Amino acid sequence: MSYSSTVQELIDSLGRLPGIGPKSAQRVAFHLLKAPPEEALRLSRAIVDAKERVSFCARCFNLSEGGDECAICRDPRREERIVCVVEDSQDIVAIERTQEFRGRYHVLQGAFSPIDGVGVEQLRVKELMTRVGEEDIEEVIVATNPNLEGEATASLLVKYLKPMGVRVTRIASGLPVGGDLEYADELTLGRALEGRQVLDAGTPADG
Amino acid sequence: MLIRTLELQNFRSYEEASVSLSDGLTAIVGENGQGKTNLLEAISWIAGMGSFRGVPDDALIRLGADAAILRATVESPDGREQLIEAELPRIGRNRIQVNRQRLSRARDLVGVVQVTVFSPDDLELVKDGPALRRRWIDEAVVSRHPKHDALRSDLERILKQRNALLRSAHGRLDGDAAFTLDVWDSKLAAAGNAMRAAREDLLAEMAPRLAAAYDAVARESAEVETIYEASWHGDLAEALAGSRQLDVRRGVSTVGPHRDEIVLRIGGAPARTHASQGEQRSLALSLRLAADAVVRQAGVAEPVLLLDDVFSELDPGRAEALLDALPGGQRLLTTAAWLPPAATPDQVLKITAGTIVAASG
User: Fold this and answer.
1) Comparing C-alpha atoms, which of B198, B191, B139, B193 is closest to residue B160?
2) What is the rounded CA–CA span in Å between residue B1 and residue B237?
3) Residue A105 domain-assigned?
4) Per-residue model confidence (pLDDT) at position A105
5) Does B237 touch chain A if contact means CB atoms closer than 8 Å?
6) Which CATH number is A171's domain given?
7) Which superfamily does CATH assign the domain made up of B1-114+301-361 to?
8) Measured between CB atoms, which of B150, B157, B161 is closest to A187?
9) How many domains does chain A have?
10) Is A42 within the bounds of a domain?
């Protein structure tokens, strides 16, 4: 038996979303069909509103609502000489929660991964280079994920940015604060040893 | 590490089965196709989160069931008991629990139980192409140095990424693509050099054990050697630079640890082409024994030995010699035909049609 074309279209559209396989798509579709009309309409309205009002910041490619540039780029109190490069907008939320960083951001919109067809052209690398060339940027902090693709992206950025005379740094990786050494995995602990710092009145080794 | 009890639900041909295992030699007997090997397969799944027969998890779930469940109580050398539970659903992720606590990373189960598997297919280790020997040495490297698990998976992923990039270049490399290839080359060089060194070190460490194992199993003294033939000389970074044009043209990585070969020799002649079937079989068993011995003697683990129908392929003399050469500890073997007369199992499990009909000893 097959579904009517309207239902099938709904299932197919849901199935194209990331992380949703055919079975889940079917389940969500039937949930929506059974739900009261206002619940399903609220979802469709939320999608339409978000697509109409939210766009990508013309400068840093973060999500931006009401204007060309995002709230962070528009904020005059943010330090413009330091730019933190992240893979996705979600990463900005995580870094903002630390309240440690007062500079601006640049969202690459992905990580370098040839398997997924993501190369330099698909990432916002050229835009970053333009910013480094035009803005008064002194330091670029590379905060891509500490996995293979994130590290490759970091190496790539260094290759492009170093010749431009800007200071390029990488966030440290190591042990979670408040954790126990004995529970750390070998890789993380190994990295933490490599990145050890001189204990000298609290200043970092090479900082 | 000892496996005290094993429980299966909807695993392969078993609807429901539960058994306590002896800490010595267990013989699993029964006609062909009754489910003897499935018991070994269940243990090997718990050890390595996959079937040693190389089939996808889906094939392990009994026909008509939604999920298979494996449950084992294992005892570590210090006497601590752990309950390991694994649920393999047809749809969705595996669910692994240790002592009723769900593991946040399922991969953390790997290494809790170690096994060494002997199967008739091992003959291919000697007779087939280099890919099987690379898999054998890499598995041995990871058992000997568990931290190299990350190196092995990184290497696999780097190669996939680099090859995808080479394919997308369609034979030509422009400026940006060359830049990005540099990045993957440096990753491949670091991981590749490290893996080659780990393999060569392990082969050196294994050499005396391999010689001893071969002499014991073949019941004759012959010079057995392993020769590592790398696909490059010196530093891999330079070799990658040298082969770049070729790689771009072909769209694949032509040098690296994935192209290396381990040549096996008996008495100076390549075993793949010059040895008799009996010699090849003895050598295959010796490769498994040597990898097991290295892990055992380094004190990394005491693997549980799983011998799947290996005696049927051996003449009685070699079968007995293999039995003698096995290290002590927990050993499980399956057989449809006969047991070497010298085998004195501590426990015999009789299997018929996916049920354990009798246990003795």
Assistant:
1) B191
2) 41
3) yes
4) 96
5) no
6) 3.40.1360.10
7) P-loop containing nucleotide triphosphate hydrolases (3.40.50.300)
8) B150
9) 1
10) no
Mean pLDDT of chain A: 89
Chain A residue numbers with beta carbons less than 8 Å from the beta carbon of B146 are 186
| Residue B239: burial class (beta carbons within 10 Å; 0-12, 13-18, 19+) | buried
Residue recorded with tokens 């904020």: A75
> A21-72: per-residue pLDDT in tens?
888 899 999 999 999 989 999 999 999 999 988 999 999 999 998 778 999 9
Q: Which residue of A has its CA nearest to B184?
A: A152
> Phi/psi zone of residue B97: left (φ > 0), alpha (ψ -120 to 50 degrees), beta?
beta
Of A152, A187, A190, the CB nearest to B183: A152
Judged by DSSP in three states, A68 sits in coil
Contact: A121, B176; criterion CB under 8 Å: yes
Q: Chain B 90-129, CB below 8 Å of chain A: which residues?
A: 91
**Domain B122-295, CATH class in plain words:** mainly alpha
Q: Please report residues of B whose CB lies closer than 8 A to that of A151.
A: 187
Q: Model pTM?
A: 0.82
Q: Find, among B307, B359, B303, B291, the residue nearest to B328 by Cα.
A: B303
Model confidence at A207, in pLDDT bands (50, 70, 90)? Answer: very low
CATH 1.20.1050.90 in chain B: give the residue spans.
122-295
Distance from CA of A87 to the nearest CA of B (A): 17
